[in-house]
Every structure is written in C-alpha cells, then in structure tokens.
Design a protein that fits this description.
The complex is a heterotetramer, with two copies of chain A and two copies of chain B. By secondary structure, chain A is α+β, with helices and mostly antiparallel strands. Chain A contains four helices and eight strands; from the N terminus they run βαββαβββαββα. In chain A, helix 2 runs antiparallel to helix 3 and helix 3 crosses helix 4. By secondary structure, chain B is of the alpha+beta class. Chain B has a single domain, classed as Ubiquitin-like (UB roll) (Roll), CATH 3.10.20. Chain B has a five-stranded mixed beta sheet with strand order 2-1-5-3-4. The chains are: A alpha+beta, B alpha+beta. Strand 2 of chain A pairs antiparallel with strand 2 of chain C, so a sheet runs across the interface.
Chain lengths: ~160, ~80, ~160, ~80
C-alpha cells in the first residue's frame, strides 16, 4: 500500500487529523514521521500571505514526494500546504511520511520540507502594521536543499 | 499568436503589472532574448535578468534560457519561499 | 515557554490529539516534528507486550528529553510511551518536539526516539499463536543511539 | 536487612522467578561479587554476568559493578528494547 497525497489549499490545515489518517492505517509500517510548520511571531508581523502557481506548484510537490518515496521506500507521503493569508500560530505546511523503519520516515520528512522550500513555486509576503514586503530566499534554505541533492547524486555515482 | 508574460510576486510589484500580452517580436527565440527585449521597453525589467530568477514555461518549471514561441506563457519567478 | 511532557501508560496513544496540543500553541515556534511508532505486522505476530520499570523508565525518558531540549533549544518535548499488550497497528510510542526552526525539531525527534530504544528500561515481548518470546536488542539500534552521543561528545570537545 | 534482587523480562524467564530476597552474605560489597554468589547458588545465574546485562539499583540505572549494601534493591536487566 503506497500513496502520495498532495494538497494546496486556502483551508486551515488540521495537522492532528492528517496524522491520524496515517497512524494505524498500514500494518506494514512501523513509523510515521511528520513536520508541521506554522507562522512564527516576528517583530511587526501581523499576517503572512502565501501565493502559489496553480498546477505547477502541485506538480513540483508531487515530484518531491515521488523522489522521497523512491529514495526511502515510503508507503505514504503527504504534503499539505496552505496558501492565502494566515495569522501567527496557524499551520502553513504539514509534511508526513510512513515507512517500515523510523530513520527512513524521518529522513524523508526532512527531505520533503527542505526541498519544497526552494523547489516548489510559493512566495511568502509579510504583512505588518506599516505595510507589506516579500520574504527573501535564504541561503540556509538553499544549503539545506543542496545537502539532500548532493547526497543523492553521490549515492548514484 | 501572442505570447503571455507573467511577473510573479516581488517581480509583479517591480514591474507594476502582473502580465504582458504581446506579439513575439521576430528574431526572438529564447527567454534570454525576450528578457533583453523587455529591458529595452522598460528598464525595470533588468530585474528579470537576475541569476536568481526562475522560469515557468507553459505550466512547467523550465531552465534558463528556454526556447519560446508564439502562444507560450512564460512566467518570471523570484526565488521560491514556501514552507 | 518550554516544557517537557513524559507519559508511560497502558492507555491508547492518540497521536493526532497530542500533535494538536503542540501546534499553534506557541507563537515563537516555527516547527513541530513528530514520530509515531506503531506495532508492525510480522510473521506470526499476534500482539506485542511492553514491560517497563516504573519511575526509572520515566526518569530515563525525562533525562533524554532534557538533553534534547538543551541540545536543540526546544520549546516543548513530548515522549508518550505505551506499555502492556497491544495489537498490530496500535501506537506504541509518540515523540514530538517544537523549536523555532525545522532542523532542530526534526533532529531532536530523531535523537529522542533513537535514545529511548536503548537507554530507557522497556522490554518487548512478542506473542504469537505458538507462544511468546522476548525481542532481542538490535545492533542497529545501538549504533543509532551511538551516532548521537558520539556527535555530542565531539561537539563538547 | 535483606537485599532484594529482581530479574527483569527474559532474565525472569531464565531464572524462573522475578525476585529473590536474601540476607546479603558477608564479604559481598558489589554487584559483581553478588552475581558470582548467585551463580554458586544456581548455574542459570551465569546469564546475569553477560556483558549486555544492565543494573537498576534502588530506582536508578547504575554502572557495573556498583557497590551494594543491605536494604538495596538490585534489578538485573536485559538490554532495553522499547520504542
């Protein structure tokens, strides 16, 4: 039983309910790993607004989940990303993986969250009391994504 | 057939518009040539030439430069900042 | 806001509800990572039975969570371990961490699940139709735990 | 005062009992000496001497050997297999 579930939506993400759909569902899976990203309090931040590129974003997430599924022999891979406006503390993204063993599930989740930050077309805008600005890409995010792709390339070699 | 050019996120603010629809000028066959042409029309378009800018061509992420032809939709994208 | 929550109980673990207690609760936390371990189908397995050493087990889990909290600047660390008899697909353990950044939360969860397997007094018995046997400790689990302790030692040096 | 000795998990099956309560014989001051003494009483106790066996002494995980005295509770533990 393997499957990939990709969702990009304006609806609020219910992380616990998504996790519960994965636990206990597959008797061959020993482990379910998840990462939930939420809007963090930052000086002046009133809300975040996420924009995406319909169809292209979903396809990019699908490709990331497929690579993770192959690389770590996942049974289930889930990427659920919210778009539109959200407030501090609200869930922005939920990533999860089920696998027979814990290390595979945890690595796959790390890979998917790192890759989606730099390889899926989302743009993040910060709204403050005094106006709005677009979030700049961070070198640390590129390095995190490169860590995985370098590792995969060297394994293939 | 026209070509549709989209400016995403911060590039939309920079260009002051989300989209241009124009006839593809003769002799322009790839995204780099188109970028140069757009800079001739509007100096603000030099932002499109920045090495960090990525392309989405007809609903797929595409390398730079990519060949283009009439009927295409080409989106200029700032670096992605999701998650 | 930091806290450690340790539970060892015969009650069923509700992973989704535990995750929901952590998401959105802390505006300074960008990320919540979790790992849910469940009873995996294995040839002949009818049920698992987990035994622990009251008080000592809880103290060992507390020490693991405290080390993780210091090492990765966690805001919340949760270890919820079930004991007694459980069936295939039921949740055996839930580990979660909240941190300002994703890598810290994910690494802390990996550390806590790896360490609790070898450093907290639990013993696992497999019940089959034909009888019962105790699960033997695995070299791979010891290596996983050593990976973290070696890394911490070299950072301290 | 007696000493209480507990045999956990697979060691309980091996020893055929979960606990021994005995007066600490004179001259026995640490867990290694106690383990040797238990082997004199019952050859099955040689399993307690295996390098993988860990100790819990009075509600704390303890190194091997650990000093022991009357009134202590000492548990012999097979390698832990939780999670």
């Amino acid at each position: 039983m393997t499957g990939i579930s990709i969702t990009v939506s304006h609806e609020k993400i219910r992380a616990g309910a998504l996790l519960d759909q994965l636990t206990g569902a597959d008797p061959e899976c020993g482990g379910v790993a998840s990462f939930t990203g939420q809007v963090r309090l930052e000086p002046g931040l009133v809300a975040l607004e996420l924009e995406h590129y319909p169809a292209v974003t979903e396809n990019a997430l699908q490709a990331i989940a497929e690579t993770a599924t192959r690389q770590w022999s996942l049974h289930q891979a889930v990427i659920h990303h919210r778009v539109g406006r959200m407030e501090i503390g609200e869930t922005l993204v939920f990533v999860a993986a089920t696998a027979p063993h814990r290390r595979e599930a945890l690595d796959a989740v790390g890979y998917m969250i790192d890759l989606l930050k730099t390889e899926a077309p989302f743009w993040k805008q910060v709204h403050t009391k005094d106006g709005s600005h677009w979030v700049e890409a961070r070198d640390t995010d590129r390095e995190a994504a490169n860590y995985w792709t370098d590792q995969m390339t060297s394994e293939d070699a | 057939m026209p070509i549709t050019i989209r400016y995403m996120a911060a590039l939309r603010d920079r260009m002051g518009k989300s989209e241009d629809v124009m006839e593809l000028p003769s002799g322009i066959t790839d995204s780099d040539a188109l970028t140069a042409h757009l800079q001739d029309l509007d100096p603000a378009a030099h932002a499109l030439a920045h090495p960090s800018i990525r392309l989405i061509l007809n609903d797929a992420i595409a390398p730079r430069p990519s060949p283009i032809r009439s009927g295409d939709t080409l989106a200029f994208c700032p670096p992605f900042t999701g998650g």
